[in-house]
Amino acid sequence: MSETKAIAIVGGGAAGFFAAIRYAQLMQQSNHQFQVHLFEGSGRFLQKVRISGGGRCNVTHHDYNIRSFCSRYPRGQKEVLSPMHQFQAQDLVQWFEKRGVALKVEEDGRMFPVTDSSETIIACLEKEALALGCKLHKNFFIESIVKKTFGFALNSRSGETFEADKVLLATGSQPVGYNIAKALGHAVTPLAPSLFSFVIASPLLQELQGVSFPKASLLLEVGEKKKFREENPILITHWGLSGPGILKLSAWAAREMKQSQYRATLTVNWVGQAFGHVVDELSQFRQNHPTAKLSNRALLGLTKRFWERVLMVAQISQDQLFADLSNLQIQKIATCLTGCVFDVKGKNRFKDEFVECGGVDLKEIDMKTMQSKIVPGLFFAGEIMDVDGITGGFNLQHAWTSGYVAGSNMAL
Known about the structure:
Elements: E1 6-10, H1 14-29, E2 35-39, H2 47-51, E3 60-61, H3 66-70, H4 81-86, H5 89-98, E4 103-105, E5 110-113, H6 118-131, E6 135-137, E7 142-147, E8 152-156, E9 161-164, E10 166-169, H7 175-183, E11 192-194, E12 196-199, E13 212-213, E14 217-222, E15 226-231, E16 234-236, E17 240-242, H8 244-252, H9 254-259, E18 264-269, H10 275-288, H11 304-313, H12 327-338, E19 340-344, E20 346-349, E21 355-357, E22 365-366, E23 371-372, E24 378-380, H13 394-410
Parallel strand pairs: 1-2, 1-10, 2-6, 10-24
Antiparallel strand pairs: 3-5, 4-5, 7-8, 8-9, 11-21, 12-17, 12-20, 13-16, 14-15, 14-18, 16-17, 18-19, 22-23
Helix pairs in contact: 1-6, 1-13, 10-12
């Protein structure tokens, strides 16, 4: 083993693979002898990549304005500016295209491989790493790391010891990564789940799972003072509400929601229109179609099932004619559509893109290099850091970017 050119990467996810590939590329280009050992504690590499986007892999987001892109990180938005200037979403798209993996943009800006399969991304990364000579170790659980006079000693659960000149911790939200970081002198900010759905029990939502609302406006009130707003699609589920709007609210309010034990008040405007506008539209329809039955005319882009449920909650007969709809009844419908108040009773993790809020304190990391300010030769990348984004490809992009920057600087 080369005395000065051996590195260890702990964690076989997106950040770890990207760091390994970048390091090996640079060392190969400069004709240096090197060894890259990547250790994954489980039996599968790139597991979060595999399940991202429902198995399609939401690789990144099609926002190439770096400042705008970085505004999507509830924690770390200022700190990620520097690394994103080194390697951003557009660079990632080009990186994959050079390796024969084309990406496509969906209407909401999310980017996926054209194959709609995360296995395309996984195969590309594994092939690239192996072609560059990276040693990939599955079921190799690194339990502790000790800083030595020169380099590091990595101790595995099975009793083996591995020595490396530099180490990258890319263990995601696994507790072992935080424990190793703490043992090496780093602080870890309070951890809390992010990107979760809301548990809500309401007659309005019962048996309507699958009904979506593309233009919803949301207000989440946590405690007495904390208010969070979002305008994005939402979805009724078996247990309450989910969809991009809810997930983004959960990200911005992650710490506050944990402190409140996931109790909050959510006000939903299902149609994203003002109360007065909805009243006017219903009144105009009453004038133009007086003989129409309420049950036969779902308005404002709503599904028939949801419209009927609104009438039920407003205690208005479905058999009633629009001509018989009073101004007070119109106001009751408009209130239900624009200011529906729910008690949030808990959370459900979003399995396509779950993420942890909190991690290694960014004040202790040089964000231009991803190197520890406390332990020379120790680097960080990915979710282990106190950086997390909203849903839409932002968390994976942080993994790619921080891995790229870490790999680049480990090669120096």
